[in-house]
Amino acid sequence: MQDRPDAAELLEAVEDFLRGQSAAASERWLRFQLLVAANTLGIVRREMLHEDHYTHEEWQRLDGLLGAQEPPAAHGAFAAALRTRDAELCARIARGDFDAPEAEARLFEHFWQTIEDKVRIANPAELTR
Amino acid sequence: MDALSDSAIVVEAVRQGLGEPETPVEGARLLAGGAMHDSWAADAAGPGGRHELVVRLSPPGRDDSAKTRVEFALLRTMHARGLLVPKPLYVGENVRGQTFMLMERVRGDSNPRQLLTAPAFKHARTVLVTQLAEQVAMIHRVSPQDAGSPLRVTGEDQDPVLAECDRLEVEYREVALNPHPVIIWAFRKVRRMAAGLAPRTGPLHVVHGDLRVGNLMYDEQGLTSILDWEGVHIGEAEDDLMWFCTRVWRFSRPDLPAGGLATREEWISAYERFSGRTIDRRRFALWEVLGNIRWALVTMRQSKQHIDGTVKSHELLAIGRRTPDTELEILRLLGAKGETHAGQA
Description:
By secondary structure, chain A is mainly alpha-helical.
């Protein structure tokens, strides 16, 4: 295990630095690029903190929609398997498996939770607008 | 980019466009905005008086010739009909082979955030939607034959809603970096709901194709010009009306769906008054879902440009993480039980 500072602390420090540089920049293009860079580090930081939790919940919801499946233990294999399940969900939607109102309602619940979790990481301000 | 040589290019473009190789050209400066082109302001100060101009340059190496000529022909048609558009003066290629268009400069600003918030534009905010509705009604009176050149058609052989679904599904397959079940579901949902729509009435017509607050010029009195006709095509009215309402173009006012300026109903009913048409609210609602899908695909495409190496930019790359914002809006619009929320407020 790495010593402190941990990755989130490092990212937050650089994020704050970039935000400060952005505020101080006199040129509009640079100000915007620095702000985007700071926000991007914020995305990475929040993802590191929350993504494991969110994706395991996503997996469980997909168990309900696609049938239960044991999640791979290794991180990379888990992420790949989740993508594959998303592709399977797309295929099942396209062939009409979720057209019936009850099935659609369950699908919609999954969508709402999944997308809200993604926004919580990528752009949390959107949820309070 | 070399700023000095760029302004020299602008000076040459003005002289070429006016057909006055010796005329003095002053004050060349890059204008803000414009994702596809660089637009420059410049003033020609010849013996015949002062000309306030805009030179819109296509990026070097991009073959924009045919597309820009279509837009130029369309602008001439619109200007001749008294629409609020910049008067087009010349289209051609400069010595470096770059396509450019020369236009008269229109007074006003185009910064949407300023329009939606600055105290100086309080009056403009109250009148702009009505002014724009009148203009859009005029645009939609232009028949395909009167457009000045052949344009792409959305809905020639089938309902335009379904034609737009087809078009966007092709684009989705091209730009999606990973599966997006929400988008797949939205396509299917829109197609199923479209089956229940009343058939559209009346012939297809010219639509602007990128009608949003960022493409409007305004001053304290309201609308001064409608810009960026690159997306112009033949289609139905809802195509333009809904794009003005997609969430991304509301900026700081998500509570006012019509461009951050008005409710959907205020916008649509103003359009109905000027056009004499009736807008089917259910058809509009499906178009608004498609508009948000269209924006979601833009966010994917921008990310893909960096990943492909077409344009290296951390900014473009990060826009890929804005896709869920738009997917959330699609879910809001399509609602839990298949009841759409679009058309409300």
